[in-house]
Amino acid sequence: MGERELIGPPLERAFFDRPSYEVAPDLLGRVIVHGPVAVRLTEVEAYGKPGEDPASHTYRGRTERNSVMFGEPGHLYVYFTYGMHFCANLVCMPEGVGSAVLMRAGEVVDGFAVARSRRTGAAASADAKRVVPDRDLARGPARLAVTLGLARLHNGFDCCSDGPIRVFEGSPADPGVIRAGPRTGVSAGAETPWRFWIDGDPTVSPYRAHVRRTRR
After folding, report:
1. Which residues pair with 196 in a beta bridge?
2. Nearest CA to 198 among 168, 177, 172?
3. 117, containing H or E segment
4. C-alpha to C-alpha distance for 80 and 155, rounded to whole angstroms
5. By percentage, how much of the chain surpasses pLDDT 90?
6. pTM of this structure
7. DSSP code string of 73-95
8. Candidates 3.40.50.880, 3.10.300.10, 3.40.50.150, 3.30.200.20; correct CATH number of 2-173?
9. Residues 6+ away with beta carbon under 8 Å from 168
10. With 70 as the cut, is the pLDDT of residue 182 above it?
11. DSSP states of 9-77 as a string?
């Protein structure tokens, strides 16, 4: 079982049935498992309710794309971005609200061989020959999704049921090492300090402010 004896019991639905900005820092140090791969979360971002958080996918209300965010807490919301990456979120608050936490980065604690094969397979041909350092396996939301093998078919998956994707207690981060700051790469609501990370952890992704793209 490797490191898995250290991850503790799975988190219950009540854990996620809270505002995303409360769930987010509490997710740091928890372990998400999909099949053979386990990742300890080290960086997350909270996204709020419709009409209140302009950076949230639910800001303008319910759509076919974001409908999972309005479902039960504890489900996965997986979306495709920039035409090339999947990102994975954990739905928060009661059904019908529309809020979630983006899993931005983590440390692989089990299933290294599978995690590395997934990252190598997803790499561009120029990078395929290089060995991905352990710290970079899940360093960033797209990398984390690839490492865990999460894609469009996992959108709506219930992480609080008896299935292959669960979030476990792990070792919650000491509040003294949790930092908060602006969210990464969002154009609206960027100043909201709902990005949370474990200070000094090498798997935390670098902060990048949003840069407006202009057409040539």
Report:
1. 44, 180
2. 177
3. helix 112-122
4. 10
5. 78
6. 0.90
7. TTBEEEEEETTTEEEEEEEESST
8. 3.10.300.10
9. 7, 8, 9, 10, 11, 30, 31, 32, 33
10. yes
11. SBPPHHHHSS-HHHHHHHHTT-EEEETTEEEEEEEEEEE--TTT-TTSTTTT---TTTGGGGS-TTBEE
Token representation of residue 195: 């990005």
What is the residue-averaged pLDDT of the chain? Answer: 90
The domain ranges of the chain are 2-173
CB 95 within 8 A of CB 23: no
Alpha-carbon distance of 47 to 214, in angstroms, equals: 26
Nearest 5 degrees, angle CA 191-CA 151-CA 11? 70
Pairing mode, strands 165-168 and 85-92:
unpaired
Q: Is the pLDDT of residue 1 over 50?
A: no
Q: Which two tokens stand for residue 37?
A: 């791969």
pLDDT, tens digit, 9 for 90 and up, residues 62-79: 999 999 999 999 999 999
90 strand-pairing partners: 76, 101
Question: Which uninterrupted H or E stretch holds 99?
Answer: strand 99-110
Are 41 and 32 in contact, with CB atoms under 8 Å apart?
A: yes
Pairing type for strands 37-47 and 76-81 reads unpaired
